[in-house]
Amino acid sequence: MNEASPCLPPAADTAAPIAPTVPTASGESGAAPARCADRPTPASLQPLCAALAALEPLYHAACPQASLADFDRCVADGFWEIGASGLRYDRAWARQALAQRPGVPPDAHWRCEDWQLQALTSDLMLLSYRLIQPWRTSERITLWQRCGPPAQPWLAVFHQGTPELPVP
To answer: Is 145's pLDDT higher than 60?
Structure first.
C-alpha cells in the first residue's frame, strides 16, 4: 500500500529523490546504498495495513485528531521507541510528548507515505512507512501486536524512526 495518510495533506511533489552520497573509507564521496526494494503488502493484508496506517498518526500527533485518549487506546503498556534522534523513550515519555504538542504539528506539512505491512506472526505486524517533515525525512517502523480489547485489538508495542541521509 503506497499512499499518503488520510490525515495529512497529499504530497505536493512526487518526484523521485536524488540519491545522496556518503563518505567512503578514503574520505571521498560515493553513492549511498540504494533503498531496499519495496516489499509490497500482500493483498490479504491490505485492509489491515490501511487500518493500522490510520492509527499511526493518532499517537504521534501528525493528525489534527490526535489525542491522549487515542494514544491510550492504541499504545500498549510496555511500549517503547527509538526516536529518529537515536534516543530510547518509554511509553510515559511518549505520552507526555503528545500531551505537550498542539493538535497539529508546528508545521502541518508532515506526510506519511510508502506504507507497507509485513506479518511476522498472525498476531504481530511490522508496519513501515516514510515520514516527511520540513526539516527531515525518516523511515519509520511500528510493531503492532494483536493483544488489545475487541474494539481495538491492535496495539503499538515498539516504534523506531531512522533519519534518511541528507541529500547534498
So the answer is: yes
